[in-house]
Write a structure and sequence with these properties.
The complex is a heterodimer of chains A (334) and B (290). Chain A is an alpha+beta fold and 334 residues long. Chain A contains nine helices and 18 strands. A six-stranded mixed β-sheet of chain A has the order 6-7-8-3-9-10, with helices on both faces. In chain B, 73% of the residues lie in helices and 0% in strands. The chains are: A alpha+beta (334), B mainly alpha (290). Chain A: Keywords: ATP-binding, Nucleotide-binding, Transport.
Chain lengths: 334, 290
């Protein structure tokens, strides 16, 4: 259970094709993250899987059963929406019980399941409140509670953390990861935040303009990005990408080097530049270096103790085996 | 923004309008109450002696009074029922993506802009009239005796006319409420296994509760004082079959020229309206909190 296969699935809104035919397999129990810039079609793809949008072509199979034309309720999937979509006039208890009530479970069974979900999600004290009286994180947990009581074959999350503040987001990220570890149910998670993707996913699907750019584990994408887009999208701060004579030296059209794979020195190195901004995070310092003759700005991660200021000259040396090479079409050269 | 100076300035600035409004309300009210305690009939010029509550006694013991109260409540209740139920259904229809949506919406709202006298005349002469009316023609084409709506079902006919006028208002308010419903909630309910009817009952109806409250409160205020429609169509008849409280007061003071009794009726109407308002606020006013 919980295996989802997309076979040449495509979606057009009128004349506009937002998702050209794509194939994707999500294995049972996997935590898959769809990541991409806004408007890349990741939410649409999720809604196609949920059945909230009709596919324009292709086939969706859930647990090997064809599900392309099943209504959302019959797909045994649960979805957590960006706005949480809690029912404002119902108490937390009734919100969580709603899918059970719709399924026609008897009252005692409903109560048992709601209590259990509330216990798992630390919501027991809030069961008789309404969504309006809860904090963002608690609402998020109610939305998750409403989806777990149904015991779905897969969970779908549509940017669930984007309405939370930074501290809560980190906390909820952990909670969702723990939930996945405990339930071992397939989860599909949509986000534009590559940090969420890297930290939570078993498998990341990078999308751009409705096309899958690369599918792989977080470290695979980090170590061997298939193309310039993935190289620039995955990793924080972004990879330095540049073309020109320096790239030609490596027999490539474009080369890329991550900020953490460049050593900086005030005395000697391969490239020279001028520090414009240094961002001190305590443990690390990010240098934004101009006038290197490579990219307009080179970002370098150095040790927190490295002391340079605006206008200082700095020398940069890349780790030679960490240079990514790409051809003129932007594809990786092995 | 709320320093001591700004607050006292604000108080000084609004006091003229408050005073004006106060006079506007208090003076006519006081005069009505005063007239209601006098024997004041325009057909009997001369002194207007103070008679205490005689006018009230006379007005309340008039057999037409009970009829008028019942008719008023039937009129308000009937119109509210039709406009709220019909308004919800129309709003649901208008919320669907259809071709020519803008034009359809304007046409649906149009009756609200027709003044009551005109719409009542249109209904009376072009629809209800058994000889020249559309309904009469329809009845004749299918070979049925035309039904004289205003003579045989006067109150129901007036309820129909007033509902036709107020349906657009209810539809408009309910449509905007419907459009403010988060579509993700409906999608969530759909994924939770709720069918179309369950979604309507569990999600849409509670969401509309507040808008329905507003519609009921506002319409009640206006429906308690329906006059033009009755005046133009039935003149409160036959007998008192379509006389409501407003029309009865009109009859007393302007057809019988009895200012004293008419004023007493006015005061009673104010009291009744307030009783209804208190009930309404108690029953549904809490929907407006939060």
């Amino acid at each position: 259970m919980g295996r989802i296969t997309l076979d040449k699935v495509s979606k057009s809104f009128g004349e506009v094709e937002v998702i050209p035919p794509l194939d994707l397999t999500i294995d049972d129990g996997e935590f898959v993250v769809f990541v991409g810039p806004s408007g890349c079609g990741k939410s649409t793809l999720l809604r196609l899987i949920a059945g909230l949008e009709d596919v324009s072509g292709g086939e969706i199979r859930i647990d090997r059963e064809p599900a392309t034309h099943l209504p959302p309720a019959k797909r045994r999937l649960a979805m957590v929406f960006q706005s949480y979509a809690l029912y404002p006039h119902m108490t937390v208890r009734k919100n969580i019980a709603f899918p059970l009530r719709m399924a026609g479970l008897d009252k005692a069974e409903q109560d048992r399941k709601v209590e259990e979900a509330a216990r798992v999600l630390n919501l027991t004290d809030y069961l008789d409140r309404r969504p309006g009286q809860l904090s963002g994180g608690q609402r998020q947990r109610v939305a998750i509670g409403r989806s777990i009581v149904r015991e779905p074959s897969a969970f779908l999350f549509d940017e669930p953390l984007s309405n939370l503040d930074a501290a809560l987001r980190v906390g909820m990220r952990l909670e969702i990861s723990e939930l996945h570890a405990r339930l071992k149910t397939t989860m599909i998670y949509v986000t534009h935040d590559q940090v969420e993707a890297m930290t939570m996913a078993d498998k990341i699907v990078v999308l751009q303009a409705g096309r899958i750019e690369q599918v792989g584990s977080p470290l695979e994408l980090y170590r061997t990005p298939k193309n310039v887009f993935v190289a620039g999208f995955i990793g924080s701060p972004k990879m330095n990408l540049f073309s020109g004579p320096e790239a030609a030296k490596h027999d490539a059209h474009t080369i890329g080097i991550r900020p953490e794979h460049i050593a900086a020195s005030t005395t000697e190195g391969t490239w020279q530049g001028r520090v414009v901004v240094s961002e001190h995070l305590g443990s690390d310092t990010f240098l934004h270096v101009h006038d290197t003759g490579l990219a307009e700005v080179m970002t370098v991660r150095v040790d927190g103790e490295f002391d340079v200021r605006h206008g200082d000259s700095v020398f940069l040396t890349p780790e030679p085996d960490k240079i990514h090479r790409f051809d003129a079409a932007g594809l990786r050269i092995a | 923004m709320s320093t001591k100076a700004s607050r006292s300035a604000a108080r000084a600035m609004i006091s003229p309008s408050v005073l004006l409004l106060l006079c506007w309300m208090v003076v006519p009210l006081a005069m009505t109450v005063w007239f209601s305690l006098l024997r004041y009939n325009l057909l009997m010029p001369g002194a207007h002696p103070f008679v205490g509550l005689e006018n009230y006694q006379y007005f309340v013991s008039d057999p037409a009074f009970t009829d008028a109260i019942v008719n008023t409540l039937l009129l308000v209740g009937g119109v509210l029922l039709i406009t709220v139920v019909g308004g919800v259904l129309l709003a649901l229809l208008l919320d669907l993506p259809i071709w020519g949506q803008g034009i359809v919406r304007i046409m649906v709202i149009a009756p609200f802009f027709v003044m009551p006298t005109v719409s009542a005349l249109v209904w009376k002469n072009m629809f209800f009239d058994p000889v020249n009316g559309l309904f009469g023609h329809l009845a004749k084409t299918i070979g049925v005796q035309p039904y004289d709506f205003l003579a045989q079902a006067p109150l129901a006919s007036i309820i129909g006319i007033v509902s036709w006028q107020w349906l657009p208002f209810a539809t408009l308010i309910l449509l905007t409420a419907l459009q403010s419903l988060d579509s993700e909630q409906l999608e969530a309910a759909e994924m939770d296994g709720a069918g179309a009817f369950a979604r309507f009952y569990h999600i849409v109806v509670p969401h509309l509760a507040r808008a329905v409250t507003v519609v009921i409160l506002i319409q009640t205020i206006f429906l308690l004082s329906v006059f033009a429609e009755i005046f133009v169509t039935t003149n409160g008849g036959p007998g008192t079959a379509s006389t409501n409280l407003t029309y009865l007061i009109y009859k007393e003071s302007l057809l019988s020229f009895d200012v004293g009794t008419g004023s007493a009726g006015g005061v009673i109407a104010i009291i009744l309206a307030n009783i209804v308002a208190i009930f309404l606020m108690r029953m549904i006013g809490r929907n407006l909190d939060a």
